[in-house]
Amino acid sequence: MKLTSTIILLILCAFGYEVKAQATSSKDATVQAWVEVNKTAPSIKIRWPYISGVTKYNIYRKTKDETSWGTVAKGTVNGTDTVWIDTDVKVGNVYEYNIIKVIGTQNIGITYILSGIDVPVVHSRGNALVVVEKGLATSITTELNSYLKDIAADGWKVYSIQVLKTDSVQKVKREILKINTQCGGIKSLIILGHVPVPYSGDFGQGNYGSAPDGHVPDHNGAWPTDSYYAIDYDSWNDGGTNSGASRAENRNFPNDNKWDETQLPGLVKYYTGRIDLSNMPKFPKNEVELTKQYIKKAHDFRYKITQTLEKGVIDENFNGPAYGYFASSAWRNFSVMFGPKNVVETDLLTTCKSENLLFSYGAGAGSYQSCNGIGTTDDFVTNKGAIFNMLFGSYFGDWDNADNILRAPLASTENGLTNAWSGRPYSQNHQMALGDPIGYCAMITQNNIGTYAYNIFANIVSIGLMGDPTLRLHMVAPPTNITTTAQSSNTKVSVSWTASTEPGVIGYYIYRSGNPLSNNYPINSTPITGTSFIDNTPFQGTNYYLVKALKLTTSASGTYYNLSHGNESVISNIIGSPASTINIAKQTLEIYPNPAKDAIILKLSSYSNGNIIRILNSQGMLVKSIETTLNNNLTSETISISDLASGLYFINVGTISSRFIKE
């Protein structure tokens, strides 16, 4: 990999702190941290191995959505210490930490942790749009329908549109924005097949004297930019000339429908990922067959048919200090996902051959079809990577070409559900340890300018994700054999199931919908510990039921309530209320003060379809039930909470839910 003098002068930066050259390796440029939490006396304990010569550790803390760590450390400990405890925490809240290793006056290593104690369950994840290339869609009708249901089974409301390969990127974006407006906001965008590829960039000119892989002038110009579809910005420029690249696809001319922006002109709004298995002739299966194979691989992972190891493998073939500690993103992410003992540095393909690892990172000098020290596209024909992957090397980050190695793990017969070009900049994946989808992490990486360490080329147009952005790290085995039976002259529905085989299941939630792609809210307010349920208020006509298992998942970053994907049962000819009469969106429940010590005041915005107030703890267990006088006259009611322990609580009034914190 060639480097220009401009790149050599750029160094890793995080909110004003520099990682200096005393870090001798990518691992040394991090803190191998992990977390232990205590619910009884709420605390978050951050641990790390002893490293000789360290002067001190500074620990910063922010909320998840804040972009600044501030200027004052939350805590500082001596370099000989290996633990710091945060007691200023509440059960159910989420905190993000930045741990900086200091030697002398220089910051040597950085690691990030998203942590919490018994973080509440997520039922509804938002709207997901699947954009499918029409020719592919007509060949995978059955598989596509199953794939959409699999996404919905994790709490997404799923929409799907088809576009042509010959459509302009502007037309595709208009179709995406149309759905975004109609559904009230897309949260995740899945691109399936060879949907038109946006290109943008003026790499090699202006403020960017090099392409992201350092190759000039042959790799200058525009690179693939799927983030174009996820940014609410319509003034992309198309008037520049950048003609030095070897490939025609990278050359940029006025009015050629390739944009000139090199840095993203706005915030990426959607969790975006692309599953594009076209133009992979080295694999014996064609695009249709590879896509069907990918959909099955994703299903088997989601439903825990594929058994995985919580482990990360790192295979770096660069000298860290000279190039920017490429693999540091893996060392810091894997440590807080799996704990340092479950992070190994060895040959990637050899390790993945015998084990279904959750994550891998590989880096080496590259070409479009190879990564030195890792392998070539041919190797992925007969081998496999991890479930989630990061690869870095020259050229192949520009992925829209035949047999590109960045897409190769997705085409392998096993694993390979995502891959990202991580090194310039680093990928931020630590949030997955507390339940976030990988697409959220990709969006954070795209929008990162100074919140997290990035090496160089932060916030550029070429940052993207190969694979499904809705996938999460920790899968829970779902209940099986879901059965629905009509009762009481078809006015009630009995739902039964076989218990999940997952150890530690707390109970089950049941979801009902009139739309098989929208089962987002449970109809039972507390988890059911048995294996049956009677729905007394089904919808008129056809009802779609999902049953999910609930578990408290523990990772190296904390604990969170985690749902399995739902298994489905459908029943028709039911006599009930029309689904369209339920209008949850306009109903709100105000709670104040919040946080509160002794009492809260409730105020309802519209009729609640119920007159019982139910208060649930962060686990979803009922702790208090009160008959209410709240109604559509907007009356308020005071509720005593002096008998409740400190922590996060949820309130249900009929179909309306809100939450509060008891101090």
Search tags:
Immunoglobulin-like, 38 strands, 663 residues, disordered N terminus
Structure description:
- With about 675 residues, the chain is α+β, with helices and mostly antiparallel strands.
- The chain has four domains: about 5-120 and about 290-465, Immunoglobulin-like; about 125-290, no CATH class; about 480-580, Immunoglobulins (Immunoglobulin-like); about 590-660, Sandwich (Immunoglobulin-like).
- Helix content is about 15%, strand content about 35%.
- It is built from eleven helices and 38 strands.
- Strands 5, 6, 8, 9, 27, 29, 30 and 31 form an eight-stranded mixed β-sheet that branches. It has a six-stranded mixed β-sheet with strand order 17-16-18-22-23-24.
- Helix 3 (about 140-150) runs parallel beside helix 5.
- The longest helix has 16 residues, at about 285-300.
- It is globular and about 70 Å long.
- It starts with a helix and ends with a strand.
- The model is unreliable at about 1-20 and about 580-585 (pLDDT under 50).
